[in-house]
Specification:
The complex is a heterodimer of chains A (114) and B (112). Chain A has 114 residues and is mostly beta strands. Chain A is built from no helices and 11 strands. In chain A, the strands form 2 sheets. In chain A, strands 2, 4, 5, 6, 9, 10 and 11 form a 7-stranded mixed beta sheet that branches. Chain A has a 4-stranded antiparallel beta sheet with strand order 1-3-8-7, with no helix packed on it. Chain B is mainly β. Chain B is 0% helix and 54% strand. Chain B contains no helices and 11 strands. In chain B, strands 2, 4, 5, 9, 10 and 11 form a 6-stranded mixed beta sheet that branches. A 5-stranded antiparallel beta sheet of chain B has the order 1-3-8-7-6, with no helix packed on it. Chain B is globular and about 40 Å long. The chains are: A mainly beta (114), B mainly beta (112). Chains A and B meet through strand 5, strand 9 and strand 10 of A and strand 4, strand 5, strand 9 and strand 10 of B.
């Protein structure tokens, strides 16, 4: 068990470009979450999967954002037509089945939109 | 008003000091209370987890929850330079991490 893995660690892109991030959760965790964190703030919830089903989406997740977890294992988060306001740390977390508030976070992907 | 309020600090203490970190909240539905530690350029790491009111101790760390006052605390005894990090309080109304609300975090510096 190597923990939650996120790639890439850093991404620099120009405004208007599309970006995709990947998250590999802890293998026995069937719940997967995406959070966004800006400087000086705590993580803010974006979306949540139980297995391959996306069960909850925040209002923060505009139509430029899409997340998938096709086989209930890894997940991707895509941002289309990036804006400077999208610059943030994107964190992935996973948790055990059966309901758990104990979130295990990856190291995040730091996105900078120029 | 935010659901969870946390003083961002920074808080600077000498090595060996007792540190007190606090959060207040407004949603009386919160039942689960957590403290996460986040080092620079890393994801948050769960430190303490408490259900409902009361105290919980784990080594040098003690978490307290006072639901009547909507106030939670984390105490760190014999603080070490390695404790220097951002401490995030978090809380949830029921099972399911997707409803977890985080505070803004308090930056702690422990000076050797």
């Amino acid at each position: 068990d190597t923990g939650v893995s996120q790639n890439p660690r850093h991404k620099i892109t120009k405004r208007g470009q599309n970006v995709t991030f990947r998250c590999d959760p802890i293998s026995e965790h069937n719940r997967l979450y995406w959070y966004r964190q800006t400087l000086g703030q705590g993580p803010e919830f974006l979306t949540y999967f139980q297995n391959e089903a996306q069960l909850e989406k925040s209002r923060l997740l505009s139509d430029r954002f899409s997340a998938e977890r096709p086989k209930g294992s890894f997940s991707t988060l895509e941002i289309q037509r990036t804006e400077q306001g999208d610059s943030a740390m994107y964190l992935c977390a996973s948790s055990l089945p059966g309901g758990s508030e104990k979130l295990f976070f990856g190291s995040g992907t730091q996105l900078s939109v120029l | 008003q935010k659901e969870v309020e946390q003083d961002p600090g920074p808080l600077s203490v000498p090595e060996g000091a007792i540190v007190s970190l606090n959060c207040t909240y407004s949603n009386s539905a919160f039942q689960y209370f957590m403290w996460y530690r986040q080092y620079s350029r890393k994801g948050p790491e769960l430190l303490m987890y408490t259900y409902s009111s009361g105290n919980k101790e784990d080594g040098r760390f003690t978490a307290q929850v006072d639901k009547s006052s909507k106030y939670i605390s984390l105490f760190i005894r014999d603080s070490q330079p390695s404790d220097s990090a951002t401490y995030l309080c978090a809380m949830s109304p029921n099972t399911g991490g997707f409803k977890t609300i985080f505070g803004a975090g308090t930056r702690l510096f422990v000076k050797a």
